[in-house]
Amino acid sequence: MKKKNNTDNEVDDENDKKVIRRTLRLEARATEQEYAKAAELAKTCGLSMSNYVRRTALGQHPRQRLSEREVEALCSLTDARGDLIRIAAAVKSIQADRRAMYFSDTRFVEQWMRAATQLINRWNQIENYLTE
């Protein structure tokens, strides 16, 4: 694996992946409480202290990692979105005159609305859980 030096301390390997070498240090004094808080925030974001401080110093706002439960909820929300897209595609694939017949039947529309309302309420519950 041959490497060559470029500007900005970047190195290219044979796969054209750029490896950034960080050689300069940023230093700041902190109280024990400030250091502990920064370490806690870095940990909740799944970052090293160095990476967390660098990102925040550059104006980024690292986010907390999702818990297993939150990841599961997000996957459920994604699956539900996919289901809705498939339902919409199925409805669009029905011939227009047949679709008009279904949706002119008030019982069918009521059942459709009940099912859609339950789905929408569940999505709202998942979204609220994730944003709390």
Describe the model.
The protein is built from five helices and three strands. 63% of the residues lie in helices and 6% in strands. It has a three-stranded antiparallel beta sheet with strand order 1-2-3, with no helix packed on it. The N terminus is likely disordered. The chain is elongated. By secondary structure, the protein is mainly alpha-helical.
What does the secondary structure layout of this molecule look like, with pairings?
Layout (H helix, E strand, L loop, with lengths): L3 E2 L4 E3 L5 E3 L11 H13 L4 H9 L10 H26 L2 H9 L1 H26 L1
Rounded average pLDDT: 81
Order of strands in the sheet with the most strands? 1-2-3
Which stretches are low in confidence, meaning pLDDT under 50 for 5 or more residues running? 1-8
Terminus-to-terminus distance: 48 Å
Quaternary organization:
single chain
Q: Which structural class should the secondary elements be placed in?
A: mainly alpha
Q: Main beta sheet: strand number and arrangement?
A: 3 strands, antiparallel
* Strand runs, count: 3
One letter per element, helices H and strands E, the order comes to EEEHHHHH
Estimate percent helicity.
Answer: 55-70%
Q: State the shape.
A: elongated
The number of distinct helices, counting runs of at least 4 residues, comes to 5
Radius of gyration: 26 Å
Strand content: 5-15%
